[in-house]
Amino acid sequence: MLRTASFALVAALALASCGSNNAADGEVAEGAPVAAVAAPTGQAWIDVASVTPDGGYMVGNPDAPIKLMEYGSLTCGACANFTQTGFETLRDKYINTGKVSFELRNQVHNGIDLVLARLVRCSTPDAMVPLSEQVWMNFDTIMTGAQAAGPQLEAAMALPESQRFVAVAQASGLLPFFASRGISEDQARTCLADAKSVEAIAERSDKQSEELNVTGTPTFFVNGSNVGTQSWETLEPMLQRAGAR
């Protein structure tokens, strides 16, 4: 599957490259309509976050009867399209009503992807999903910057691990992007200098992708059933079939 040692950093950065399409191997069981559940006082469900035992980041009502999980790549154009066209509705109509919880896990496709996956984890658990959303909402800008920095990125990947990921972020303009969203440059550098934490993300991506048959992004699971790569237009009816209506 995906190995950080073999990342062809620039060559792999096709803007719409998301891996192969993953055919669904499961179906969504039809469920009774689910009632809305109020969030804790002073909070919205989208702000209630936790790290799951498998390393995902879950937001929403932890007891929601409908559980949605996404494997997404932060350098995947289809994942960006899903966020740009559907995440606002997913958040407001499904997560914030307490009917659906949402867990995000990364499938890592290349070196920039790996650096981004570490940076969105560089704050508290409640920041991971919003920061990922910010990456996807600004997808074209980020990818254009990465494409323009090809020679610098290749040079960065030749550096020792303690310097490599910081140099990738610096060359591709990611440090100021995240600084404007609450991750200071010093904080980002510290996160990326911890090579073990960066490599752990890639290793988990490899292992889970193989175990769960995730061959493309965005791949979704509804109540544990792998429903394959979906757009918002095709995923929303599945949530409604499960009871979010």
Automatic annotation (TrEMBL):
Q: Which PROSITE patterns match?
A: PROKAR_LIPOPROTEIN
Q: Which residues form the Thioredoxin-like fold domain?
A: 55-240
Lineage: superkingdom = Bacteria
Q: Which Pfam families match?
A: Thioredoxin_4
InterPro entries given for it? Answer: Thioredoxin-like_fold (IPR012336), Thioredoxin-like_sf (IPR036249)
Position of the signal peptide: 1-23
Q: Which UniProt keywords apply?
A: Signal
Record protein name field = DSBA-like thioredoxin domain protein
- Species of the source: Tsuneonella dongtanensis
